[in-house]
Write a structure and sequence with these properties.
Blueprint (H helix, E strand, L loop, with lengths): L5 E6 L6 H14 L4 E5 L5 H11 L8 H26 L2 E5 L2 H11 L4 H12 L6 E6 L2 H9 L17 H17 L4 E5 L4 H15 L8
Parallel strand pairs: 1-3, 1-4, 2-3, 4-5
The structure holds thymidine-5'-diphosphate.
Amino acid sequence: MIWSGTFITFEGPDGSGKSTQAGLLAQRLESLGIDVVLTREPGGTPLGERVRRVLLDRDGVRHAARADALLFAAARAQHVDDVIWPALRRGAVVICDRYADSTVAYQGYGSGVPLDRLRELGAFATRGVRPNRTILLDVPVDAGLARRSAGEPEGLTRFETADTFDAAFHERVREGFLELARIEPTRWLVVDADRPADAIARDVFGAIAELLQLTHEAG
Ligand code: TYD
């Protein structure tokens, strides 16, 4: 599919600071007068926010990994149709906090759902709308966890609470993201996110300015 906008996604393990960085990038691009749409997954539409609650609530309900993959994909399909695709078509820069790569990393590398099936599911859910650039905010698992536990306990998802936290799972997710970045190096940019937010933001903005061919002061 062809569009005139630019699609940027942020990916990374829990606690890598994606939401902060996605917000900072959006603000900076907006301050340059660029039409920016900042959104997130799971969520981004009324249906997506409902599915998000089903997926992330710590309600003790058992979830098979395949069921999770399908639920994330359902939210994504709505998000592409209602938010991402219309914005790209009108020429906006769309910044999305997590997208189809998260399903491959979490449900695939993390939980063992076959990767090829998840790629098919991703293509189906997204109608082939793929990011122009994906920023991987990479942090060691324990650093990410420490960051998340320092925040509001209510903000923790079912993947993160102490009773269910599985370090080996999160390690596989991290390695999975790094492998995805190695497979497709022209799309991915790996950023060391175990650093202060302003240093990360500088690297992210530098890469996106280059992508958008903005003339900018790197500082
Ligand atoms: P969220 O609160 O958005 O966490 P974060 O701030 O770390 O992005 O919760 C999203 C959780 O859902 C996170 O643990 C990653 C997981 N997830 C998947 O397992 N598969 C997916 O396809 C997506 C989009 C998220």
